[in-house]
Amino acid sequence: MMKEDKDKVIEEIASHYRAILKLIGEDPDREGLLKTPQRAAKAIYSITSGYNQSANEIASKAIFQHDGKGMVIVKDIEFYSMCEHHILPFFGKVCVGYLPKGKILGLSKLARIVDVYAKRLQVQERLTAQICREISNLIPNDGVIVACEGAHLCMKMRGVEKQDSSTLTFESSGKFNENPELRKEFMTVCGF
């Protein structure tokens, strides 16, 4: 997105935050809130920047030849996302594994793929599936597996208010669906 377009979008979002402040009974002209609409607009724009990114474009520049067949795992990839139901944060860690078939993906690109999908309004189940599907489609492989553990503020600070709850989601393809031992090896390495 062009800088001028980005600035216009942020200004439009800020006007809505200003209206929200008024609707909840606040005075957006008081000292502590003067710049809040602008700050909040910039924050939500950044938090949802995944809509302006393509995981395919990011990752396709880092695909390399590889003869090995051993599992590749990147674990503890932190993520921050926003629940699409309440627009409240959820965050945690993702573990990604795959079985290469002639090609590998640059390790940092796995983390960037996580960010592209996390930086959208999301549910954790879809986030996990999107990461798995994207990696499956990017490189030849014999299977992809993704495990995600998240803490959801929509469960901690409103509604049921369960402070110690966490959510685990898994998605897999190929040999990870066919071979329970392979799946178990991944889960053990990732600490699940």
Brief sketch in words of this structure:
The chain has 192 residues and is an alpha+beta fold.
How would you explain this protein's 3D organization?
The chain is an alpha+beta fold and 192 residues long. The protein is built from eight helices and seven strands; from the N terminus they run αααββββαβαβαβαα. It has helices at residues 3-23, 36-47, 55-59, 107-118, 124-138, 153-156, 175-178, 180-190, and strands at residues 63-65, 72-83, 89-100, 103-105, 121-122, 141-152, 167-172. The chain has a five-stranded mixed β-sheet, with helices on both faces. It has a two-stranded antiparallel ribbon with strand order 1-4. A hairpin with a 5-residue loop joins strand 2 (72-83) and strand 3. Helix 1 packs across helix 2 (36-47). The two termini are 39 Å apart. The mean pLDDT is 95.
Q: Give the SSE order as H and E letters.
A: HHHEEEEHEHEHEHH
Write down the overall geometry: flat
Major sheet attributes:
5 strands, mixed
* Class of secondary structure makeup: alpha+beta
Percent of residues in beta strands:
25-35%
Tell me the radius of gyration. 20 Å
Number of strands: 7
Mean pLDDT: 95
Residues in helices, as a percent range: 40-55%
Poorly predicted sequence stretches spanning 5 or more consecutive residues: none
Number of helices: 8
Distance between the termini: 39 Å
Q: Reading side by side through the largest sheet, how are the strands ordered?
A: 5-2-3-6-7
